[in-house]
């Protein structure tokens, strides 16, 4: 396990529950964090070198900071380890492609952590869509909003809203529609957030994608939804509509003189995607133990990154971009 | 009353209920329709000339076919009559401007039939937004879908999906955000509708608008929602979200072994906007009898038409258009 | 039209819209109210004698105070007029039976104003139940709550909560299950309403009914639901569940940092049952003009009254009552 | 751990996750089941004697069949072990009282497995009620329906629907209202289930309870809800209403030409109360390690059982029972 932070803890706990997996090493630049996570799961602290040199290690889970992903993918692949890596592969397309080349050359299994594909609601919708319940998909609307902006220094290193937040939504677009974009248009703003604007980023954005078959996708995002974490999408097909809604912490409904009210959505991604995180790690180790293909793979990681890059350019240049060529 | 068709009947019935209004003449090229509507409300059939020449007529309601609007507006204005006219003013911007000039010169009151502003749900949302409930609006999402495409010959005369259907949504955009667009981007397709595509029109479209203040608007539409007429929008503000949903014919909920299910939305615009049609006519005659301003007025009609024209161009040219100049 | 009060105005306006009906006389002890209602609909003020003596009068609508119902039913029947009478027939079972006898003897048509049977939601549920959608009904739950208690002097004359409020729910029970009760149990309280308790009445009550076939019904009521007028029921059948919910004034949904909220239900019965009042009057005049049977009839009025009386006794005596004999 | 069946496995897995708990022995008459559960959690198979004789065992979890509960409670208490016991204490009130006496005499901690008190939705509602959000509770409505009846031989041993199913709801009544019943009325039927009727049991039941303060409670149940497991309740207070709804497996909403539909509720109690089972075991071991009181305790178990017995008698005798004495 590379990374003993917030997401590392989640992956480690899920890994520990898998009957075919055992956590052997925790690697983190923060010694105390590594030690605590290792202790919790009966593992040892090690350096990357030590862990990758151990032939008993068959797979790595990369949950360290974004700037370490590409290097760890390269070294793990060369060491012959199967790889689970958090999104994004890298903020730089060139380095991401180099990783994909190494994966291809070494033939190691590699899965990218777009956990939303494993969300029970999203997955059920995808299965019903694939089963033909609403016919061919024609319009996809994605709402993807964070409860509040991250610290300014995080934003500065984040690659911008399209690579940081919307990369997940670009993956949803490709996964749900089962097609690639032929055009991308993005616009956005940073109302009331002058410092974020000054840092060259946005707090609201609107993206439009179009596939070769003419399916349309609109994504809207905000870094600040006062009511919490909002993750919904809907697909209009030729025979109906499928919507994926938020989850609520409880099913209490209160009727007062003012309103009938329910809980706001789960607070943030750790709560909202708790099941998804468990299911993606299960998919990874099931796939490894059974020899079945892993999804989403590094190509999915790169395609989403390319769309994020195109969206960033579209916004900066104020024009729609053709990406069919 | 000009026009004794579907919408003419509705306006006439609403007019008949207003304490300050009396229907005097019905004008329609179809004699039988005119006669029947006149009989229902104790009015007489007349030609446009006769009706406009009668000094006892203070106001006209124009609900005849789109190609007659501009001419009737001009003649009614010159005859000094107050005017309620169904959207659009005209499919041609030039003729619409000429109407506005005549209205301005003659000083007659003129209201355009964007009835959605009078829908109880939409109006309540607008009032709560204006009262500051969610702070400044940042993102507006509009879903506007018809249950099925109209006949091909209608489509050919309709001016296309942006002028025919989305003109209402452009008005919603301007009304809800209280601002004008500085950029427009539109794309669309006609999947499974080769004849509509051949006629130069679309069945699905996605439009993105941006205001000077950076508020974003995404509109999605379809000429064929298998489940019925779908009219929703939502506004994200700095302090929360307001959504306007569909109405259902009944509040029956059925729990079966397969699903928990509710009614689909009201079937089409006559059902969905029944209250709105009544309230807009009430607003028109209240305004006339009290001397208060009428909204939406002919400038609103022209602004929505201009956005429809820009969206059509954006789609045809495959690029975002700057409309701030 | 007997009665020019709140409900009289509603009936008169609905009557005025029916193509086969014309309002000829308004009768009310309050001259001014009678005069105003008569003027609105082009009718005349008259005494009961005058109105009933006019052979041009074919039907009467009784919307005057409860204590006048029985007398007006008797006199109208003897005068050969068809009768629409607001619930209840009378607070006294003996007098109600005498009315039924006169109706039977004179053969006039008579309909009782249990308007809830005409509520679009309730009616749609009933049709789906009758169509077999959920199999045989086994459990019926009725929630029936007023927004606030009426004045104490009204309560004193009301016959108590079972005859005043729940009589409607007893009719719903009989109509939905299509069966009669074999046992009745009622209990209740008047928490925080010492004066109502002192007047011998309740503010909350719980009633249980059982049919010969073993279908169960639970009714709960309150004279004070802080959030408004609450009128719901649900039927569990062998193959599923059907619920009838409240209506909301608008379909606005607000997402704040605290909650996701919707409108409370329509404020009170005039708003909630607006459509039902129109449809019951339409049913009455349609039935008269077409010679088809009227429902609910005076027997329905008496059966509901008998259940209200049994429930009152059950509560007072603190025991379940057998009503199968 | 006594019992290695369905519920035993759940408790064992939850126990295994608690930092202060370790599973030492599994006791079950089915050797293979005991062995497998023991192996899963690194425990050993033992007889009751062996397990209770081990001084290293501080606590027992009783999840074996109902007829073993009382004996195991007695022996565990005498052995000085803290006890978590599934509901019911026993089907016989006398034996249950004997258990309570032994618990009192030995002073061991004892918690009864009314897991619904730990359901996140129910618990949140209770907290909001206690915080005064809706004022004093006046009416409690409980819907408690199973997806289908158990095998006939289970029903014969179950103590009947009131002790088998509604015992949970009697506990909810006492917990939510924080008061005891002064009267009980129950009725029921077994439509379409002649064999269950012949076995002296019911498939539908309706219970009414009243507290000294006049709060009313209606419980309705069914052994066969075609749409699944239905667990809802609502509390009307002087200032509003709180409802606790079902959970759905996913938040997918489908719009078809026929209906707008959602998932039916979680299939049955293992799914619906998954979180509750985890939280009650956490509460048990937290309480033991911190020395804080355990709820619900054996008195709660007895009080619910007494209400179940009274309801059974009320139904059999066809009359309301006074239980205030």
UniProtKB/TrEMBL annotation, chains A, B, C, D:
Residues 1-114 form the Gfo/Idh/MocA-like oxidoreductase N-terminal domain. Residues 122-242 form the GFO/IDH/MocA-like oxidoreductase domain. The keyword Oxidoreductase applies. It holds the Pfam family GFO_IDH_MocA_C3. InterPro entries: Gfo/Idh/MocA-like_OxRdtase_N, GFO_IDH_MocA-like_dom, Myo_inos_IolG, NAD(P)-bd_dom_sf. Keywords: Oxidoreductase. SUPFAM superfamilies: Glyceraldehyde-3-phosphate dehydrogenase-like, C-terminal domain (SSF55347), NAD(P)-binding Rossmann-fold domains (SSF51735). GO terms for molecular function: inositol 2-dehydrogenase (NAD+) activity; nucleotide binding. Its EC number is 1.1.1.18. Belongs to the Gfo/Idh/MocA family. This is Myo-inositol 2-dehydrogenase.
